[in-house]
Amino acid sequence: MGKAWKFGHDIDTDVIIPARYLNRSELDFLASHCMEDADPAFAQNVKEGDIIVGGKNFGCGSSREHAPLAIKAAGIKVIIADSYARIFYRNSLNIGMPILECPEAVQGIENGDEVNVDLETGRIENITKKAFFQARPFPPFMQELIKAGGLIPYVKEHKKNA
Amino acid sequence: MGMTISEKILAAHAGLEQVAPGEIINAKLDIVLANDVTGPVAIKEFGKLGMTEVFDKEKVALVPDHFTPNKDIASAEQCKILRVFAKEQQLTHYWESGQVGIEHCLLPEQGVVLPGDLIIGADSHTCTYGALGAFATGVGSTDCAAGMATGEAWFRVPESLKFVFHGSKFQPWVGGKDLILYIIGMIGVDGARYKAMEFAGEGIKALSMDNRFTMANMAIEAGAKVGIFEPDEKTLEYVKARAKRDYKVYNSDKDASYEKIFDINTEDIPLQVAFPHLPENTKSVDEASGIKIDQVVIGSCTNGRLEDLQITAEILKGKKVHPEIRCLIFPGTQAIYLEALRRGWIETFIEAGVAVSTPTCGPCLGGHMGILAKGERSLATTNRNFVGRMGHPESEVYLSNPAVAAASAIRGEIVHPREVAK
Fold first, then answer.
1. Nearest residue on chain B to A68, judged by CA atoms?
2. What is the pTM (predicted TM-score) of this model?
């Protein structure tokens, strides 16, 4: 369970992690500047387990993997949006950051609402508003990949077990 | 059933006779690219895989272009990771400051990327190489690491959107930048999300390679996976002198299927300006006329090629940049810079009061060399005008072609080039 941080449409990777911080790639550093140009208070106030809610085309722009890395390192448990830009979608799963598409949930969640998300079933509960939404859950292998922490640890784990 | 050029390239690299949109394929890569921002993360992931060697030292390109010449100690450390890795792996395609250029100007110029190639790059503007008739798309660092390790990547075959430009006449000063901004204004920043954009028609045949690179470059600004052109005589002429290996020309079949076909009359397209803070906020230059600016940036992977500098030189020749404007020019590569120098354009720029820089991505991404303060406004020939893109989150970026940018540098506000060319 966590608090929802709501953003608008076309949230680009430049506002998720501005390029002026891309001369470094340590996760703590990236997290400390996450979403800075959209909400300067975000990085200071975000708590482990919070969620981000975005509109359409979330993560558009640059291919910087630093964007989902910064969000994950900031403690965000899941992103829910109307839709995602192509590279951001792939990058997020590759680093083990779960992201769900669910326009109904986006509409039914306001900034600051308490939200619970079950990644196994795709069920989203808005505790504040006592409402439920259903996103399409990830297939089992993708859930495993996310649990493993992304593509690289997932591949390594499977290489070991093979 | 017929296939599009995109489908044919993907099929050939997956060892398949036929592919269709929506199909997931695993395909062999011709080039894997990274830069000094995405490369260090990719190299770290490559190491975590337990890999010691890249799949082919001639097929991995590392280009330190974003924060170079090294902006500060932190960027110097990032570049060093690239340098050490390139040396360890004995990579053919690595360049130091002095030889390096902006990756998407450099790789085509050096013949590293060729028609028919399948390319992934850890940089969203990798789609630029579609101008050569290659299938090229941006990925993140993890996909790049996997590509460096295996020489393969998985793809979802995209649906194709076709943009047919009718007529070969353009309004004065209109170029590739205006055509692509016009399309993005029409379909929006997610109008081609996950899809292939294919550019065709008489209007496209009339365009130079430099203009085609500009268009392919900004396909990502509509969310596309690639912006692709069928190779023609101009493509082959460009490639002939540069290719050091075999390449293959693919064309779309007559009965290829498209999700949607857009018909556009080239003469209908006015000079474009994209307003903050999305490339889709396009208006005609006349609607932008009179907007005060503080800085003009000409260059980048979008408009840093020879023709861009030629138009800029023609407009600035014998004129002065407005005293309250900082005008910065970034040639895309050293070869472009040198040719501009030989043709006397660099002299023209400096006499006009322009700061000319060595090639770098610099200000385009708000990295260095031309950062905006709070409340400042830049007109730029770059590709993105997101919040904070060129500096302070409360600064603004407007996008245009080089002619509009150069004319506006003289006037001190956004203006149609005809106003200063009189």
1. B140
2. 0.97
